């Protein structure tokens, strides 16, 4: 029998049992769905079906629009469309007698329109505000909830639970107290239709937000500050203030003088409104006028009025018959004003108001730039106002050059800034020009500047205007302190040893200075000829003195001479330490400093230059090339006064040096091998001594290498020129050992169950894990590093001996473990007095299939067996009885089996459905 046929046997068997069970029969009718909730105007499909054993007549009784969309011998599907109200359609069938079944069809209406009734244009703060929300048509009302919101804050929430199912639409009204913080707030209404109890969702919609504008207006009128008098054509500030105003920025302001509206500048200071403007009156407004300030907010106004008198008062007129006149001519001065004004000219009032005042004078030089004053006064509304005007008379006359304004002789010290003045009286103001006849040099008169010796000399000064001219001679003398320049007194002088010289310095100054020079550290003045010796070298202080001061200068004298060698500064024998960076030093005495070259000769590289350190070489000079050969070098010192030769011998030594070639940084030993020392050596002269230690402790003496020898060692090479250190890492490798081989679960493996074998090895380098499984064992899974072997759905073929082997470059080690798969027989029993005989025959056939097919092949789908109620034993080795049959495990090392104390039992147990 095929496995598929066995799987079909159970449904047939169950059908046979259904026929034998009494009480099944009789015609029935059903409707699907029994309940439905749909949106208003929606569509739903209703399935009417019957179990009538003859061909029935099926139908759907309803007042709704219906259409049959599908049918069968015992069922029909009707589509109900444009459903507007709740309904209870009835399915019916004629099957010998009429049978019926009804359904419940509920209709909901989405809250498509949510309206918040309009708010007042302005709402006074502190008064009640009525909010009204309307949701027409939405339903059922019992599932509806309305919420009034201020922004995101809920003000009131009402649920209409308990309303009749057919009730639609809802209205929510609330009264709130208007506050300042509500100004500009958005109010809205949210409707929620909760159909989740009917298997649908929560539907919501919100009204468009409406902005509320609140206001507060003080009952007091504005405070108005205005001028009592306003002159025609003049500008005066106006200020209007109103407190306790909210929102002040929304207020409207009207500010006017008579019927002329002003342009206000509005400033907000908290809840206060400050209005400023500039009032300007014209001639048509002359007389008594009112200035009004009106503030409007929220449809309410506050107003204040003040009286202002507009007047006209032109400034007085002051005239001179000759504003600019030559001296000796008569000038008439007149002061006049408008009607009603009383004028006064230089303190003398007019006879009556409205009449001018006048005076006459014969112009002289003293009247030049004389000022005349004209005052006018006018009485307006009991207040006396005044205005004045002034004028200046210009009298024309020829220039005058006085000694007080233009001295005949000037003497100035050089340096400080002076203003050169040669001024002349006259009108118009004369122009003054001072020029040296010999050179044409011009004095910069009236300008401040430094006095220089170039200004000295005699100048001809001429003052000119259109009335005439004046001429005068002026002498300028400039005195200045001594100076020592590089031409008359050089900063640096060079003398040659053995010659005769004299030290002299020439100074410039007015009056002529005297000059003296003194050698540093000595008191006597240097005079006459000197026979030059090296002791004359040094610094001299030369000082020049006159009546304006003194000046000193330092003169450096250098005495030059030919080169010479000294043993202390240039030794005959040099020892070079390779890599030390220390150059050879050969310092030679001489002026100027001689150039020195040391060239290889006997025993050295022929013609090779020896690198030398200059006396002022900075630290950190690059080291000498290691290729420099020792031997004899000839040193030659030369300057412009001669040369000198010296022979030097060079020998070489070097500090310790270790690298990867002499002391490898990574070394590997094998566990159990004969112990050896670290392979470390160093180059250097004299030959360095090398010692290695770990954490400051020398390595202990061992006959064989052990794992404890692994670690980091520090090797130190030393000779008289220094040390060199190197870190060496020692690794110890060893052969593999399978340290652990275990099974999970440890309590047993049943057919169809899962088990896992874990293998752990110790080795370095890390071992490669490999497995050997029993022949025919399929569907075996391994972990990424092969350390775990897993089986899902164990079968008989999975029983047997498993071997885990660990291998690296130094050897191989293996252990074994035995796994057995075993379980009990399973039986299926079906109860029932009426069907016992039939089930006995079916069970016998099923048992025959299981024993003859599944157990022989060792193959079976555990899930199919459990779901179908079949039972099978998977023992993998031909069977066993009972549920306690076990498996024995064992291990073997180095490919040699070793008996293990006790046994490890693994089993798979199948259970009936």
From TrEMBL:
Topology in membrane: Single-pass type I membrane protein
Pfam families in alphabetical order: ICAM1_3_5_D2, ICAM_N, Ig_3
Sequence intervals crossing the membrane: 825-850
GO molecular function: integrin binding
SMART domains: IG (SM00409), IGc2 (SM00408)
Keywords on record: Cell adhesion, Disulfide bond, Glycoprotein, Immunoglobulin domain, Membrane, Phosphoprotein, Repeat, Signal, Transmembrane, Transmembrane helix
Chief location category: membrane
Signal sequence residues: 1-26
UniProt cross-references to SUPFAM superfamilies, sorted A to Z: Immunoglobulin
Any GO BP annotation: leukocyte cell-cell adhesion
Compartments where found: Membrane
Free-text function comment from the UniProt entry: ICAM proteins are ligands for the leukocyte adhesion protein LFA-1 (integrin alpha-L/beta-2).
Family the entry assigns: Belongs to the immunoglobulin superfamily. ICAM family.
Protein name: Intercellular adhesion molecule 5
